[in-house]
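Question (not urgent): is this output format expected?
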Amino acid sequence: MPRVLIVAAPRNLKIRAGTSVWQRRRGPALHMTAIRRDLTTDVVVVGAGVSGALVAESLVAAGLKVTIVDKARPLAGATTASTALLQYDLDVPLQQLIQRIGMDKALRIWRRSRLALDALRQRSMHLGIKAQFEDRDSLYLEGNRLDGGGLEAEAHARRSAGFEVQMLSRRQVANRYGIVRRCGLLGFGNASAEPRLLAAGFLRYAIDGGATLHPNAKVLKVEPGKHWVLAQLEHGPTVKARHLVFATGYEIPQHVPANRHSIASTWVMATRPQAGWPSSCLMWEASDPYLYMRMTPEGRVICGGEDEAFKDTQHRDELLPTKIAAIQRKLARLLPGIDTRAQYSWAGSFGSSPSGAPTIGTVPRMPRCYAVMGYGGNGITFSMLAAQVLRGLISGEGDVDAQLFSFNRKF
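Got this back:
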């Protein structure tokens, strides 16, 4: 068993580039303090993005003393790059996941994703966190991954599993949404939000409940023991905790198993406010790579895609103008009635897995250490799932689906 986990990443990875639409306004204010001496706590959460915020708030609600540390400042990483399409749909269609891992596991994963999104909606409402949270339908358009017949089969798989969906013909899609030569699968109960406001709301409730938030606190190494975990910070102090959670997005520390997860890059643009958007529903394609889009409350169209395997940040960032131009062309073909000029454009990276499911749980051979990885297109939904699973594992209450997302699962 390794006694010390070196946290420093093998490369100097930059999570995002460009300027996202959320950055047009100043970031939410949060109460933060510098760590100037050694600390002792129940749980140290490494990462102050949306996943760290949801995990921290859940653990505070369970009665635990929580310390949140971030190598930079809160909400400055992947959360700012998120498009916040809050969906329960996995990147892997249900029918394909059933073929890969079997009916029981596939249905449990999809249903748990739906429950996690519902829990996020309910928890936000209970705490009074508005964050531009709005319920949305979602339209899954035929593409090179699923044609019309494939979407019909997907509709059947989802209905058989208890999900309410409606198959729309090409004529219906054209009449309702102005999109021609595409049939679609209409789903219900998804949502959208402003990701920074959402994460800030949960961080505030965690802090109000007794958590402390510390920026510029980079963890260099972690030493787990039988009863404690010791986190060594870059500038000297240590944090001694009974448990440690890595909520660091795709920047997973060395020695944490990759678990067949990979890193992908994506590119996103946002238009000026306009009146030509035909619907408030979320849209995405059954294609690889796929286009995804949504509308903001002020009428901007956010559209992203052109995903490809991550090479390095320089390569990803240099492609920003080319990728945005490609997204504009695709958006113009899909919705010819709107102004597709980009007022904001940005690039980001995310983790994905062959099954579309995240990995959540105890790091192998690192007792009392936990990690969350593999968000894919369901980042914020899976962050809520992580908050639920980790609360069960750390509090001792357990979670009936923990094994489905653990590091030792076989898919």
